[in-house]
Amino acid sequence: MASRILTCVSCTLYLFLLISFTIIGFASLIVGAIGVGLYIPTSQTYNNYNNNTCFIVDVKYDACIDSCYYITWSVEYHATRRYSFSTITQTYETLNEVSEEMAIYSDKSNHTCYYDLTEITRVQWTRPPSPTPYLIMLIIGFSLTGIYLILIAFFHCYRLYNLSK
Question: Which pTM was predicted?
Answer without folding.
Answer: 0.71
